[in-house]
Write a structure and sequence with these properties.
The protein has 243 residues and is mostly helical. It has 2 domains: 110 residues, no CATH class; 117 residues. The protein contains 14 helices and no strands.
């Protein structure tokens, strides 16, 4: 008679205080065991750890080969970037590298951390993102778009301007691709397939003229992105209302 394999028991949740009390080796193990990877990442733990751990610990974790540990470090360094410290230049260099990490979850953790950091210190975040937008690096531009094309970030008028600029730079990079898109271009195109709908809805009076210009762009890549954005119900409804 066959027996059903025993289900692996997940470790119990860990509190903030317990996490802070751990030595580095034990901390790494605690995060790794509760990461949720390779399935769905434990976002609650990611947010708690990236906010609670000391900056030097976060910088150490950001260099980890273990993906979730690197995610915690990346999100924490990004969140702390604009805060009250004298490490802005060093952290910017850290983030420049993390924002192009080959692991997409780490890059997304950078964007998530910057979004949270922008809640309190938006100007340094926007300066960093604007530099990424002008880099010409497709991966870096994608992380820039991911960071600012977030409704709560776009409540800030300056952030809306930076987001439009980032999206325009992204579209320019995609429009100049001759032939089939590579993996990095496809990833950026997928991001742009929803990013425009977010910024149009955030500031329709300013952004709709730019959107209508995109509708006339002859690039097949641009037209696919336009079509994908229109399928997002709120944007489609807005376009119908505005004629």
């Amino acid at each position: 008679m066959s027996r059903t394999p025993a289900r692996r028991q997940e470790p119990a949740p860990i509190s903030r205080d317990a996490l802070l009390a751990l030595e580095p080796e034990d901390l790494d193990e605690a995060l790794y065991k509760r990461s949720g990877l390779p399935g769905r990442a434990n976002v609650a733990l990611l947010d708690m750890a990236s906010e609670a751990l000391p900056l030097d610990e976060l910088r150490r974790l950001s260099g980890s080969r273990e993906e979730f540990l690197a995610m915690v470090g990346a999100a924490g360094v990004a969140r702390a970037f604009g805060g009250p410290h004298d490490l802005a230049e060093e952290l910017a260099k850290d983030l420049d590298k993390l924002a192009v990490d080959p692991r997409w979850r780490v890059r997304d953790a950078v964007a998530r951390g910057l979004q949270k950091g922008a809640d309190e210190h938006v100007e340094p975040v926007l300066g960093l993102v604007e530099g990424w937008s002008d880099s010409g690096d497709i991966v870096l531009v994608r992380t820039a778009v991911e960071t600012v094309c977030e409704p709560r970030v776009l409540e800030n008028a300056a952030a809306r301007q930076v987001a439009v600029h980032a999206c325009e730079r992204a579209m320019a990079l995609l429009a100049q691709v001759d032939g089939p898109l590579g993996a990095e271009e496809r990833s950026l195109a997928a991001t742009m397939s929803y990013a425009w709908s977010i910024i149009v809805l955030a500031d329709p009076d300013e952004v709709l003229p730019l959107w209508h210009a995109l509708e006339q762009d002859p690039s097949p890549v641009v037209q696919r992105i336009v079509s994908d954005n229109v399928t997002k119900t709120p944007l489609g409804r807005l376009l119908d209302e505005r004629g």
